[in-house]
Each structure stands twice: as structure tokens, then as C-alpha cells.
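Shipment paperwork, digital attachment
Item: protein structure file
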Amino acid sequence: MSFNYGREEKKWRLWKEAEEKQLRGLGVSEDTIKQLRIHDWAVFNSDRRYYRRLLDADTYLEEFAEDTAQPEVRTVEEFLDSIENQQLYQILIMVDRLTLKIVVMKIQGYSTHEIASQLNTTEKAVYRRMDRLKEKLKKVF
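Attachment content:
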């Protein structure tokens, strides 16, 4: 979302008019009110510049994040190669291939029903294999 200068300036002017009305009611001199207005306007412009730069930085960071996105894991071998934690890797290489295929398909976004139909097994078997893997991981982590 971009910084809407016009809308923010309008809100600032309404706030400033209400503040100046209160200050006049309290007997503050017009010279002091004028100095406050100049100061507050400088602060408003400083904030405006900050928010514009912040939005530019957000856009840059989003583009940078897209560039550094991890490649999608397609096979069990790619999945195992992407594991950096040595303990996790040791656990996963001891797990059977079917369970690892299920994990890879889950990472790819397949539903349990889709996984079961593609691997010619039941949904309950898919859940059970995932639960067993979770239990193994819980013991170590």
C-alpha cells in the first residue's frame, strides 16, 4: 500500500486546526502558534519522506525475496539434499521411500486424498506414515 500524501496532509491539517483552536483558547500567542505550525509541518514532511522510502525498501525486499526463493523440491533425492540439519538428515535417510515420497508430495502442496490416490494407498495409511515420522522426529527434537 502506498503512502497517500493528500489524505495524510488533510488529516494533518484537521488535527493542526483543532490544536491551534485549543491553544488560542488557552491564551497562547499567535507567534508561538506559528512557530509550532512550522515545526509540526517539518515533522510531517520528515515522516512523509520516511514512509515513502520505507515503501520503496519493502518493494525492494519483496523482489529480493522472490529472487532468492528456494527451488521446488521434486524428488526424494532433492529433498534429502536440501536438508542442512545433520540430525534430521540421519533420521530421514533411515525412513522408507514411500514415507519420503509422501513428505515430498506434502511439501509440494498435495492433499492427503491426492497423495493416497497417486500412491495407490489409503488416506489412513498416509496419515499413519506421517504420524510415525512425526513421532520419530519428536524423540530427537
